[in-house]
Amino acid sequence: MIQGNPDLIAEIRDRFEYVDSCPFQGPRVFFENAGGALTLKSVIGTSAKFAAIPDNQGRDNPAAHALVDVINRAKRDMGLFMNASAGQFIAGESGTELLFRMIRTACVNASKGSKVIGSSIEHPASRSAARRWAGIAGLDYVNVQHDNATGMVSADAYAARMTPDVSVATILHASPVTGMGMDVAAISKAIRAVAPDCLIIVDGIQHAAHGQIDIDAYGIDGYAISPYKVFSRHGFGIAWLSDRLGAMPHDKLIDAPETSWEFGTRDTGAYATMSDVAAYFDWLGGRVSDETAPRARIEAAGRAIHAYESHLTNALIHGTGNLPGLAEMAHVTILAGADNPAREGLVSIVVDGMASPEVVAILNEQGIRTHTRKADHYSGNVLTPLGLPDCIRISLCHYNTEQEVARLLAVVNELGNRS
């Protein structure tokens, strides 16, 4: 357990850079983790090490051979971290770009006149790709409406819109606006019960930092993450592809291997940082459990992270010490309900009588970093049906503390005198 273990929390925080200060602002609380998590110190060292190496992979020299070994190890480590026993991992420009590539390939290889299904809760990374390529490929797009009250979409909602001619499906693992996680395994099962050969592609970008990915259990064909949101760095994305999706005709160089998906020389250092991420979860699992097998330790870390982040969000919503929680503040409204078991380390709110950017600015002046989500092309699918022009997103991670939550509650509570 992380909760109630200050020594472990201190150890966790010591493994991340800028955990309590900003190089531009100075001391601050970081509650903008959904926009990009903190970076592991080991990742910074690994990135610098490989940035200095002039050699490329694919040559016949010791350095090139070593770089290939590093990449292959990283792919094995990612398979361990995400529990993928088959398929392949590839690196690309970003998680969004990789979602577009996988969804494009699925759509252009689909049977003419078939359908693509997705949900209104999805981030535009998958939703835009699915709608665009469905149109180009001559496929009908089927929208599954999410539940405004809970901020999520259920397997039953997918099942109600499924037909046997659905050939491609997209699923969002967790919403960066409401913070709610979807039951990917249940949704996938509902899809395959009606259309067993459907290609299913998942946006795991928001979910990944919470440490519970189990690709083998999902029955899917594609899964994408953005490493900068799971303790690595900017500049690349990672995708897992099933053997079936990987073998489909797709963009590649002439005469390249049939399952080759990467373009150009990838950054070995980017791959290597994913070994650092896997090693961190392995380390944490060893600190919160007696497990000895690496995958078992990673699973233990995921359970501990979920439990501790639930503790932090409960403190945020229901209060800590003598401070009232957001649910007890008459001037605050919590999106998707105060008591929602699907919540993953994120609480979005609005403050009566105050524009969200103003609230974010006040919090920032007090050294508390949050973010405004606006009803634009990123978040309008969630906020517009609620009649909201914007909201304040407070996103936590397992290196945050209850004391940091208390600092935010004190400031938001005072806003009741201004709104």
TrEMBL record:
Which keywords annotate this record? Aminotransferase, Pyridoxal phosphate, Transferase
List the GO molecular function terms: transaminase activity
Identify one Pfam family in the record.
Aminotran_5
Question: By its UniProt entry, which InterPro entries does this protein fall under?
Answer: Aminotrans_V_dom, PyrdxlP-dep_Trfase, PyrdxlP-dep_Trfase_major, PyrdxlP-dep_Trfase_small
Please report the stretch or stretches of sequence annotated as the Aminotransferase class V domain.
Answer: 29-246, 324-408
Q: Which domain of life is it from?
A: Bacteria
UniProt KW Ribosomal protein keyword: no
User: What's the protein called, per UniProt?
Assistant: Aminotransferase class V-fold PLP-dependent enzyme
Its source organism is Paracoccus alkanivorans
